[in-house]
Amino acid sequence: MDDLDGPSFLTSLYWLFGKGYFQTTHQMQIEHSKIYGPLWKSKYGPLVVVNVANADLIEQVLRQEGRHPIRTDMPHWRGYRKLRNHAYGPLTEIGVEWQRIRSILNPRMLKPKHVSSYTNAINGVVSDFIEKVAKLRMTTDKDVMVYDVAGELYKFAFEGICSVLFETRMGCLNDVVPEETQKFIFSVGEMFRLSPIVILFPKSVWPYMPFWKHFVAVWDHLFKVADELVQKKMTEIQEMVKHGQPVEGEYLTHLLISEQMSFTEVLGSITELLLAGVDTTSNTISWALYHLAREPEIQQKLYEEIISICPGDKVPCSEDITRMPLLKAVVRETLRLYPVVPGNARVIAEREIVVGDHLFPKNTLFHLCHFAVSYDEKVFPNPSAFLPQRWFREQKQLNQHPFGSVPFGFGIRACLGRRVAELEMYLLLSQLIKHYEVCPDPSGKTVKPITRTLLVPATSIDLQFINRQKEQEEPGRTNASV
Asked: pTM to 2 decimals?
């Protein structure tokens, strides 16, 4: 490991703040791999990080992760839980305890039969969102524009994940969003914004930093709201039992009545699942719509695929989605261009490992540069182009590396909410494209991504949503005349 080249802490600080890469660390992966090759080490304050920017080498790390892989020790997230005596969840727990929690959480999140049972709840949120788009169009002077699509989709994703996890509606899609819900959404955003700042400083100075107090305050609010929702569900269950009624419900009900986890563990896990389920869905759908608007031929083919399987007023369900290969390919290609987590981490605690021709001691922190590999032209020819067809089974290149794009991670530490996130994305995209033709912002502005722990749009995505029914009624109406 000592033989590896890479920037010092001061050089890293210069790149982040002098050269202005703090918000585009995903691009810094590509620049550094050009300078140092596919494997290099960086220093960030107290941390030494080994960066891996090659599909073969990422595969080598992940295949040696052992029985209890650690994402990172997340000292800032774990530090907050220690401070407030909260239980760790699937993102922050490690070792045998992590495996126990995952084994309890997994079945209802990853088994297709359980996940498809969330279709009705999600479709309820989807139909509310379709109505919201209609209202948003009416409130604009141009009649078809929807401004800040990502912001609106953030509310959709929040409502969707709450309807699955907490089995309740939060009012995110109401004309006026409840104040508590608005504050909850803001707190999630602030927590992700502050995370990369806190981690730059050693633990010992956190209590003296003003942003640490703010970081703790937003976490306090997240746990307070989650606690109220879990308590409310427990009261409902107790009432059902008291009146001899059968206890029915989905995710939270199952966790509470199975009694495999304590109340504090349920609270810790459900809060982390909620965090993991918002940006993922909202940003991916935003980018997918942004590209479909700029590629009308692909959008037209997608529309034809959707109405061939769900004609008329038929609402797509999970079985229908299995027969929509282009829809799946659009999501897959969007996740390649904009991996939600542009760089994932792994700590292999059980033994030393060899990656490439280097030997790494136990507890080395690896940073897997997924963004850089997604744009590697050896893996994906013409990497900057939006080409969903590259994911069709018959067109998939023989040399396309299975670890070239792994947006949900790999192995037993892979994303727990993958199936739910995919179901939400498929159900919403299919309905949006069925109802509306999506066209670009007439101003022609391009939107680039920035890193805020996760990859998000740097500026608002504004799009035109043209009602397809109306378009069918008025044959003379074209995009040019809109």
From this structure: 0.89
